[in-house]
Amino acid sequence: MFNIPEVKLAIVAVSRDCFPITLSQRRRRAVVAECQKLGLNVVEIETTIENENHTMQALAEVKASGANALMVYLGNFGPEGPETLLAEKFGGPVMFAAAAEEDIPVLSSERGDAFCGMLNASYNLKLRGVKAYIPEYPVGTAPEVAQMMADFIPVARALIGVSKLKIITFGPRPFDFLACNAPIAPLFTLGVNIQENSELDLLAAYQAHANDPRIPEVIADMEKELGEGNKMPGVLPRLAQYEITLLDWIEENKGAAEYIALANKCWPAFQTQFGFVPCYVNSRLTARGIPVACEVDIYGALSEFIGTCVTGECVTLLDINNTVPADLYAKDIEGKFGYNAKEVFMGFHCGNTPMCRLKKGEMKYQLIMNRGLEGGGEPDITRGTLEGDIIPGDITFFRLQGNKDSKLVSYIAQGEVLPVDTCSFGGIGVFGIPEMNRFYRHVLIEGGYPHHGAVAFGKAGKALFSVMKLLGVEQVSFNQPKGMMYPTENPFA
After folding, report:
1. Could you tell me the CA-to-CA distances from 123 to 49, 118, 235 in Å, in that order?
2. SS3 of 180, please?
3. pLDDT for 206-256, tens place per residue?
4. What residue segments make up the domains of the chain, in order of their start?
5. Are 140 and 53 in contact (CB under 8 A)?
6. What is the radius of gyration, based on Cα positions, of the chain?
7. Closest C-alpha among 71, 78, 76 to residue 151
8. Residue 446 reports pLDDT greater than 90
9. What CATH architecture applies to the domain 9-162?
10. Which end of the chain offers a freer environment for a tag, N or C, measured as fewer CB atoms within 10 Å?
């Protein structure tokens, strides 16, 4: 993944001047040792903060180290003003955690009282308007604090990435999918830059890449990836030319940004003018850490990018698409998996899911577009989808969205892709999410969310929830268990 940040985390210990500074320093060293056992490369800052002069010394050390994320460690009670000033001056992702008392001998003489100091730190962070990452229970032994730091790294990676992201789009957001046409003003408050371009700009760039000498090399790479799934080799030259076009555009237009995501128009004029479906190229860029959202879904691209940063792996964007028919449910799901018929559904897109996420990916054509654009005949301009059933396993379905009032909202739901044959076309899977029917009605419908959802592979809800809150998203919805009613849920239903 070359399109996501590398987190370099520094740890700074703090000490209230009426407590032993040696206690905080000793505990800091113990945490760093435990981080090393976890394989975390942590920068240990030598200055221990007791006052504001120490704050500025420590800040200079942090900056000189090249660290882009910070852990403020209360080895004892800590000086609430100087330690939160450090967080404010640092300006990047910062977490706070505190030391637990080790044993009875420590209690008898060197007791640190960081359990108490963490309360004062949290209040002072609010006074300064600093959004810091604070673990669910932010007090622990050295091994526990080291694990908290490990949990912070994917969160920090997402925050850094979003603040230095540009989303490049091609084409107007589609009229038929107004839900994708969400207000973009909230993105600028996150530090995300938007560059909107015409489809004509992209077409001109594509045509300028005709006979590009790099095309044969890209075709060979596509052939290697597709293997036996290379069912339509004749379209590969066009797809290779398009891939080079997008990558060159990214390099030429990155500007002040460090990371890029794309949201591109993909039908129906695309097929008639470019001569192919762009799905396979979208999948290849997404696999490299450059998400490409369909249908100019800007928030879909942002959601994919956040998921990529959090997991460090490729994600996908799918329609929350169709129900599972009764005969398929009875045959392959009922009695085998713990989901009722309304808790399962199919997530689908034409063919943008990376090859590594499919059981057996194959190059095909878009069936629906073929009927509309080629009359159901021999496919030509509708070739280019990567199709297959999605590999079973844990997933997290999520989305960050700007709603109609230009406020950021989000949802996160953990579930799984079931090992069930979909008996259908596209990049598709049978998904099971506990209480999906209630989540569908009282989060997705009630919240006005679009049909697209980002899919992270694995259980990423914990980190994603923290990212959303630190981005300032006040409403982060989830699939609530039975007995926990949604505000809009009818108690008599």
Report:
1. 18, 9, 60
2. helix
3. 999 999 999 999 999 999 999 999 999 999 999 999 999 999 999 999 999
4. 9-162, 164-478
5. no
6. 25
7. 71
8. yes
9. 3-Layer(aba) Sandwich (3.40)
10. C
